[in-house]
Design a protein that fits this description.
- It is built from 14 helices and no strands.
- It has 377 residues and is mostly helical.
- It has a domain of 262 residues.
- Helix content is 78%, strand content 0%.
């Protein structure tokens, strides 16, 4: 058995690499993590990985970052929790910080559109090939399949995802309770602990306000990066702290940089109050994720050990897969239009399903290069 020091180094190497190479948003990041920690490194089973996805979807904050933190804690304890989160976040934050400085200094972003053109269909193929085995694993019964189908339809009609996830879990629990009402089965319940978060070491009044704004967003925000930008619009643009143009450019930075989309907050903080604004904004938005995962991670196995909560978790898992499939559908509508991206998507799918051992980063890199070359045709 490896020592904790060796396990920490493994965690640091993996999430530093993903932090620099994981393009495409939470669904893609989770697919890449599944490929690494389940298929290649075998740090955990498909089932436990699914349980962590389901649990992550139930708490606020950036899902892929929280998955990284979960995996780090599973592999190397509380030190792994911190190392995995920081190694996944910091590359994106540093890259975004450089773009923020360039933008503020020169008033424009680099021209990267030709490369993004091919990345998107390749990323879509990576997600589909990675999510397929998880989807099969989650459909344990016909009942779960039906719940997943309904969840997918609701996702496609843009119902609030947290209602879908909790609704699926609670519906499955009610069905299970109805079936076992007369069996006398006992169910395991457990208390939840809540922490009060107090910001410290704030540099200025402006930074205090920024920190509290992003701490609040990180503590209550469910959903994708696009939901984050809606919050930023109401919290910052409407108050005159940020312009609509700056917000749109922040969205662009979040799209073409690797790692968590929430690193866009670094860009926003820099535009408002320079380097210190970038630092306090980044800490504020990511801090709740570390605390939520530290509280939730020990409870996941207890939930799986409880008959009632195991049913809840299974239903949340299929709803989570439905949510990812709905994101894939929307990504496809947006990015796979015309014969060029269709060709990139088909070839990437063929490679993803036909050559399971190939690193997904090569598929994304190949898609990016193909997109660049095809822009000349």
């Amino acid at each position: 058995m490896k020592s904790q020091g060796q396990q920490l180094k493994e965690v640091a190497r993996l999430f530093s690499r993903l932090g620099f190479t994981a393009f495409g948003g939470p669904a893609v990041h989770i697919a890449l993590m599944q490929d690494e920690v389940v298929k290649k490194k075998q740090w955990m089973s498909d089932q436990h990985f699914l349980d962590l996805i389901g649990a992550t979807n139930l708490i606020p904050g950036p899902n892929s970052t929280e998955m990284a933190i979960h995996i780090g804690q599973e592999r190397a304890g509380w030190k792994g929790l911190i190392v995995a989160g920081l190694c996944f976040i910091l590359p994106a934050v540093c890259i975004t910080g450089i773009f923020a400085w360039l933008y503020k200094s020169y008033g424009a972003l680099p021209q990267v559109q030709p490369f993004i053109y091919g990345i998107k269909p390749a990323i879509l193929s990576v997600v589909i090939s990675a999510i397929y085995p998880l989807a099969k694993k989650s459909m344990k019964t016909i009942q779960l399949g039906i719940i997943g189908l309904f969840a997918l339809v609701l996702c496609l009609f843009h119902y609030n995802e947290i209602y879908i996830l909790f609704g699926a879990g609670l519906f499955a629990m009610l069905l299970s309770m109805a079936k076992s009402r007369n069996t006398g089965n006992g169910f395991l319940f457990f208390p939840f602990t809540f922490l009060q978060i107090t910001p410290t070491s704030i540099l200025s009044v402006n930074n205090t306000k920024l920190f509290l704004v992003f701490l609040k967003i990180g503590a209550i925000l469910y959903g994708s990066g696009y939901v984050l930008f809606a919050f930023l619009d109401s919290e910052l643009v409407s108050r005159g702290l940020l312009t609509h143009t700056q917000l749109i450019d922040a969205i662009a930075v979040g799209q073409f940089t690797p790692g968590p989309v929430f690193s866009s907050v670094t860009f926003v903080g820099y535009q408002i109050n320079g380097i210190t604004g970038a630092i306090v904004s980044t800490i504020g938005v990511f801090l709740p994720s570390f605390l939520f995962v530290a509280l939730l991670n020990p409870l996941v196995k207890r939930m799986r050990g409880s008959v009632l909560f195991s049913v809840f978790l299974d239903a949340v898992n299929v709803a989570s897969i439905a949510l990812i499939l709905a994101i894939c559908y929307e990504m496809g509508q947006e990015s796979v239009t015309g014969w060029k991206p269709v060709c990139i998507a088909v070839v990437s799918l063929f490679i993803g399903f036909g050559f399971r051992k190939i690193n997904s980063a090569w598929i994304v890199l190949g898609g990016s290069l193909a997109g660049y070359l095809l822009t000349f045709i």
